[in-house]
Design goal:
Length: 59
Amino acid sequence: MKAKQVLEATMVEDPRVLAKPRPVGYLMRLEKGYMDLQGLGNSLNLKNPIHPISAPVIL
């Protein structure tokens, strides 16, 4: 899925997101003409080390 690859590549390129464990993109919801992707990546922020990134995609 191209949109998931773009989301993961964006997180990998962000300097705030740690390389290990590798950021992962998930398909959260799929409906007619619409999908909701969410990515999870770890950072050095001690208050919130796991940052969810939501990326709604209109097809």
